Amino acid sequence: MRLIKCLKHAFGMVVHSKIRSWLTILGIVIGVASVIAIMSIGAGMQQSMTDQLGGLGGDILTLTAGSSSSTSMFGGGRFSSRTSSDVATDEEPLLERTDVQVLRAIPNIEAVDTQISGNVDVNYLGKSGSIRLTGVDQKVWARITLSKIKEGRMLDSADQNVVVIGGRLAESYFDKPIGINQMITIEENVFRVVGVLDDSSTNLYMPIQMAYQMLDDKENGVYDSIIIKIKDEEILNETLVKIEAKLMLVRHVTEKTKDFSISSSADLQQTRSEMLASMNAFLLAIAAVSLIVGAVGVANTMFTSVLEKTKQIGIMKAIGARNKDIMLIFLFNAALIGLVGGIIGIIFGVILSGVLPALMGETMILRSGTFVSIDSIIIALSVSVGIGILAGFVPAYQGSKLKPVDALRYE
Amino acid sequence: MEAIISFKDVSKTYQMGEVEVPALRGINVEIIKGDFVAIIGASGSGKSTMMNLIGCLDIPTKGKILLKSQDIAKLSESNLATLRGKTIGFVFQQYNLIQTMTAFENVILPLELQEVNDIFAKERAKKMLELVGLGDKMNYLPTQLSGGQQQRVSIARCFVANPEIILADEITGALDSVTGKEIMGILKKLWVEEGKTIIMVTHDLNLAKYAHRSIELKDGNIIRVGNNKKIRRGVAA
Ligand SMILES: Nc1ncnc2c1ncn2[C@@H]1O[C@H](COP(=O)(O)OP(=O)(O)OP(=O)(O)O)[C@@H](O)[C@H]1O
Ligand SMILES: [Mg+2]
Question: Is residue A175 in some structural domain?
Fold first, then answer.
């Protein structure tokens, strides 16, 4: 029989076993949809990481209070300093003005930017959303950040009630795009937008003094992080040692009880992408399990279908069907189940990845939304068709090998 | 005259677990091209077994079957399939139509299996259905047809690929006598007009009279071969 005819008969079989086929297809749909959604989350996390870290160059160091980012995963850092007996105070370690003064005195440091951040309610033309606000030292921020301005200008020293916003926030976060000199309401105060960044973030930057007023829980003179720009990258390591020594001195801590950490953006990128990779692998493993369950469903359906169609196989053989014809019809049937499941699964997966950021709330990881790549669609489709064929192979082979007399006698 | 089928000392034994059930015990017979043969005998005498062997649906335990001078035991699976598709046409007692396909789709199926040109196949299938008087019911599913109509569809399917040998196993068994006669009439007409070799299994001695020759089986042996002098090609019974 010609391939096209085998395909036609396979299609007929799918159509005629409605409920069972659809239930099997549902199994594939769930598997494929979760793979697509998970891959889009992975891509989204990657993107928001790039957006967050993209603003920092190789000559930039970030100082934070508390545990170091590389040891925190192993329970070190903050915890070990707290349990140590020579710690005088039980308070959270903080970054304060004295730290900034110490840093400014170090020769190889070009600039020091103090930052605080938190989520604020932003209202624009009647629509509101929770947006991540970063308060920066506007005198140095423009020099330190690698973000490029697309429209308008960066913050400058005289600024008060003005903000610079990320590209996505300006273009598509609210119903209407936000343009230069437009007013937005932040925690019931009106701010003027003076600049739009050339990125796809939803970040919001304003002078740190204003930010203290917007973020109730931040105490004036206490910073979440201090960004340091190095003059000469060649002597980065020496500078790093010097910074650590001076800070330890002024903060009255030893190597053991260190209550701050300094990371270069490269470090940060590395740790985050390692975390991201293992998280992705874990999520994909879960999705793979649901695909395997789908495959078992296809195999089960195909075995039942071959059994149920034993008589039909007998008839077809009696009127001239070769083993190959029978085999192809059942294989196509299984592949079709995989294909239809794959297509519907992709549709659901795309919808799911569209609504996921909203479902997960304003968490850090999906700040920049999710991305469904063409690659993930192609992979999902070929995997689902492949699974169909693989799961249908043994039943199809068994069906094709039935002896005509025996198959005809089957009731 | 040329023998289209010959059985040489053919035995068939079924294995039922430990027990061996002999169905045919060393049969020798020749069937001439263009003949209309009735195989008769009591239930369990081996008639269907013999038909299945002629139709290449099964292989003998012992002995040799020649079909158009080829030893069927020596043919490959795909050659046997081609033989079943092109040379042999089956009509079964239980019609054996595919329930999910319309009358037309059932009839055209053998042509699809043989990769016959689409346009020709459609014409041919239509013509066969018209010939058996179902030109107006081509798109009916088997469940929407009466037993007699279903059997006519299966006759159309049997003849569509223009086979040389027609095997009809109790084709009127599930029909009332009037419909049965009608079906036999169609079969006979096709034999007369198209010059096929027809082998028919029947219980009914009245139906056996349609045939040219009769072979009687008992307990897996041929006990009688008779000629029906009154039957000749071109003369209806
Ligand atoms: N697949 C099988 N397995 C075991 N025994 C079988 C099988 N097919 C037929 N037989 C046995 O072989 C013998 C001949 O069977 P067969 O079907 O050829 O008889 P038949 O003449 O066609 O009978 P009927 O008129 O009832 O159709 C019987 O004893 C039957 O029980
Ligand atoms: Mg029988």
Answer: yes
pLDDT per residue as tens digits for the range A228-243: 988 887 788 888 889 9
Cβ within 8 Å, pair A317-B114 = no
A and B: number of Cβ contacts within 8 A? 68
Inside any domain, residue A169: yes
How many angstroms separate the CA atoms of B217 and B229, rounded?
Answer: 20
A285, A213: one domain: no
DSSP state of A138: T
Best probe of the B interface among A319, A328, A406, by most B CBs < 10 A, is: A319
Compute, in angstroms, the gap from residue A409 CA to the centroid of ligand 1.
11
My answer on whether A313 and A396 are in the same domain is yes
| Residue-wise pLDDT tens digits, A34-89 | 888 888 888 777 777 766 665 556 688 889 988 544 443 333 333 434 344 444 44
Provide the H-helix boundaries in A309-411: 310-318, 323-359, 374-400, 404-409
Question: How many domains, in total, are found in chain A?
Answer: 2
User: Which ligand is closest to the CA of B216, given by its number?
Assistant: 1
Domains annotated for chain B, with CATH where assigned, are: 3-231 (3.40.50.300)
Tell me whether residue A378 is in a domain. Answer: yes
Q: What's the pLDDT score for residue A113?
A: 93
pLDDT score of A277: 82
Residues 6+ apart with CB under 8 A from A20: A301, A304, A305
Q: How far is B49 from chain A (nearest CA, A)?
A: 10
Residues A315 and A402 in one domain: yes
User: Which of these three, A229, A260, A280, is where a domain ends?
Assistant: A229
Nearest CA to ligand 1 atom 17: B48
**Domain contains A278:** yes
Question: What domain range is A31 assigned to?
Answer: 3-51+272-409
Taking the C-alpha atoms of residue B194 and residue B159, their distance in angstroms, rounded to an integer, is: 10
Whole-angstrom distance, CA of residue A281 vs CA of residue A263: 26
**DSSP calls for A58-91:** TTEEEEEESS-HHHHTTT-THHHHHHSTT----S
Residues A277 and A403 in one domain: yes
User: Cβ–Cβ of A2/B101 closer than 8 Å?
Assistant: no
Task: Work out the burial of residue A143: count CB atoms within 10 Å of its CB; fewer than 13 is exposed, 13-18 middle, 19 or more buried.
Answer: exposed
pLDDT digits (tens, 9 = 90+) for B178-216: 888 888 888 888 888 888 899 999 888 888 888 889 999
Distance B169 CA to ligand 2 centre (A): 7
Chain A contacts of B58, Cβ < 8 Å? Answer: 403-405
Ligand 1 atom with least separation from CA of B203: 25
A322, pLDDT greater than 90? yes
Q: Tell me, yes or no, if A309 comes closer than 8 A to chain B by beta carbon.
A: no
Domain end point (choices A196, A229, A262) = A229
Q: How far apart are the first and last CA of chain B?
A: 24
Which residues on B lie below 8 Å from A319 (Cβ)?
84-85, 90, 109-110, 113, 157, 161
Interface confidence (ipTM) of the complex: 0.91
Answer yes or no: pTM beyond 0.95.
no
pLDDT > 50? residue B235: no
Ligand 1 contact, B16 CB (< 6 A): yes
Residue-level pLDDT at A365: 56
Residues of B in contact with A318 (CB under 8 A): 55, 57, 84, 90, 96
Specify whether A218 is located in the same domain as A286.
no
Calculate how far, in angstroms, residue B43's C-alpha sits from the geometric centre of ligand 1.
8
